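Troubleshooting log. The previous run stalled partway through. Resubmitting the same two chains, unchanged.
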Amino acid sequence: MSIRKYFGIGVAVLFGVVLSSCNSNDDLGSQDIEIPGVTFDGDIDCCSAEEALQIYRFIQTVKIIPELSVTIDDKYNVYAYTKSGSFHNGYNDIYFVATKKKNGNYIKNFDITALKPVMLMVKMNMKHSTPVSAGVSSFNGNYLAVKRGWISFVMNTSDAGSWTLAFDYSILGSKGTTSETDITVDALPAGQAWIKSFKVGDDTYYLSLVNPLDSKTGKNTVTAYVSKKSTPATTPYSLAQEQFEIEIDPRMPDMGNHTSPDNVALTLQSDGSYQGTLNLTMTGRWRIHLTVKDAQGKVVAGGDELSDGYSSLYWEISI
Amino acid sequence: MLITALLTTVLVTDTVTLDKVSNLDEVLIVSNEGGGRRRSVKGQVASIDEHLGELRNVNLVRRGSYAWEPVVNNMQTERLSTTIDGMKIFYACTDKMDPVTSYVESGNLQSISLNSGLNGNPQATGNIGGSLDLKLRKIGFEAGPRQINLSAGHEWNGHLQVYGADAAFSGYRAYLNTGVFSRAADCYQVGGGQLLNFSQFSKVNVFANAGLRLTDTDVLEGTVIFDRATDVGYPALNMDVSKAQGFITSLSYKHQFSNAGWETKAYYNHIIHIMDDTTRPDVEIHMDMPGDSWTTGLYSLLTTSIGDYNAALQHDVAVNHDLYYNRLFADMTMYPGGAAPMYMVTWPDVGTFNTGLALTDDVSFAHNQSLRLSAKVAWQQQRLNNEEGYHGQKVFFPLMTDRYYQTTGRIAAAYQFSILNSHFSIGTGWGSRAPTVTEAYGYYLNNTFDQYDYMGNPHLSNESAIELNGSAQFSTFNSKLSIGLDANAFFFKDYIIGHLDSRLSAMTVGAEGVKVYGNLDHATIVNASLTADWQVAERLAWKGKLSYSLGQDDEGDALPLISPVAWRTQLQYSHGRLQSELEVRGNARQVNYAAKYGETETYAWNIVNLSVSYRLKAVTIRGGAENLFDKNYSAYSDWNNIPQKGRNIYLNISIEL
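Second attempt completed without errors. Output:
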């Protein structure tokens, strides 16, 4: 509860800062910046007032997941955020911020070295993990003290099973693993399917579509990850080492499988992601039918034809 | 005075001398003007569409019983200019369900004038086929203290009911015309008696035109028209219209110099058009398809006469500068049962700023010859204001931008001379037009004519045409008999029409595929007509007209919507206050239909119409029967071959107080 209060005040302060900044061309002097709970005491591990304000502004754009807030060694606090304040099936960006307890200020250098989601399948008494990013990293020069990673949940929380999440941290010399915390993964509404799997021999791969709701009418650069199921399955699934090419064929099932021209297959990028071009002629429900080829160009998944004539392997987005 | 000569008993030579230039045609709506020009046998009660049908080179594309699309010289809206008293106005429906002529009512107008071909009226832009100007009804100053007209009409087929009341007040300082009209019909019966579903409509219209004399030489004039059609069925289409509403307004200032007149008019109009498929059975996907058109503009027209009226040479010169800004926005939301709604922008809020300079010179010389010269140059900028629509189209045209510029122009000359009782004219011209918003930026617009979805093409070239025309009219010395031959030919370069792109996937369920607008290297349209007028006896007159048209694309194949051989003949009898007319009209089988462009063949037909009118002091009663023998037929211009009205008996009454 205290965190919410903290943010409520923070928004008011931020508003004040923005207003005052509108009134003059002066650089914001540190004496002008006040963030409740944050003391600028010159601690070199922590952000300057300007840097802290950037972090603060970023935090307004996401929502905290309260159950993942932890205190480490009674010195540091770590907070986790997602866009919606919850997790859902498929790809989720997750953001971390660490503060010092003594001054409440954001720590510049810290690391979350591993994300460890695990699902317990109650009926079968089996456990498995899900695709995750290899640790976290800064993603925007303005937000150096915010780290981003991702988790792509293969299933949502249900009667069949529930999820826990732990993570490995490294903060100014303190290293460890948090306890397994219960989290809830929401099901996606109808018309949304953002993670799909395929098998090559005995290996299972997962195709995670990144932030599909960012797609708009027109030309979209789409990003996806290909992860490989680990052995044992409780180990988080990391990116596949094998190289693939993912051909896409977007179709609107509600419009007689209308499609768009000039879509470009997703190919492997230097950062480990796959990128391609998805053209959408309108908003609504799109099925993005997939044909996965291996490095030799051999079709390894999808590309079959359902009764409607399109690949049975598809993502579905409703925008 | 109410109608003096409903049926043309005036000699043909009068008609011609009234029209200074042979390619000007006019249909009168108000009765209190001199005879000799065309008018509808239904009088003022006739719809705008029926009045338009009286014009020489006009056919009408019919998608239902309301809002017909005028076709001039076998060219549709995109190759025509339509203005209301010089004001630009653009339709708001992506499916062309609302030609701008549907936003006025007969009672708003004095006349409709048509300049055939490139020799357009000064405000016309892009008028390759012709320019229509709907002239508003203005009684003017000192024209009698007041006039009140009441009219009512009923047509049995479809129970069409028309009611109108208008009043005119005129004094030295001010004048006012104002009126209210309503028109409503149920579905009509086709020949044979079957009801044609979704052919109903209703509309109301109110208007006011007012003038104020500021000084002896300065006049202020204003116009307000509000027109709203509701529950309009379109049996030829998959959708109807729940509301088509036009608001038209203008303010003009006129100054009279000693030898010149100067008029400057500012105007604004807004059209809202909302399609509706909720009353249709078996709709696969319900859709909302609203469209909006806003136009604001200005023109300034200077007219002057140079030379003595009695001298051998006289110039009537008009210089016109106009500018307008038009915005067109339309979108579509589709609701599949259960799944997410689908949305697309079909006209991406295109803002068109256009400005043009026009010059016309009517030269009369040697008392029997005249030369009309006209030229216009126009420049326009277009901007796509809607991001979503712009990005959608950019998928298909990755190199497109959100801003385009076009320059268009026209120049035309017509020479006319009279010798004895015969008249001859020849004319030529060149003109170009910019692609329309639909042609350049339309997005998946389903065309039910050929069942293709149409994509606009922002990279289109301007279309241009060279026109040649000529006419000859021979009359006997006593003018009892005259025979006329009229012909024009348009040689197009970069003719704009849809081309199949088999790579693209149709959006509309049931559509055959996607066509993208493109330029044909060349195309030709030729029209010719033969007319005869014979004053058989003092009270008996006969008229006949036979017309032939040809349209060819660059491969010699037929263009769509080109009229087959058509004829119309009228026998008119007048005796005192009684006027009557027997008319036969018909078309030959459409031999050269454009199978390549999705057109289907239309069969030959003939119908017989009968009309009678009787005037008793201030009251005129008109009655008649259309399609007397209840023939089941459709004309080539009936969209998807929807059948025309079967036998229709009508009766209407006009009272002038």
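Takeaways: The domain at 12-656 of chain B is CATH 2.40.170.20 (Maltoporin; Chain A). Chain B touches chain A at residues 285, 334, 336, 338-345, 388, 390-392, 394-396, 398, 444, 503-510 (CB under 8 Å).
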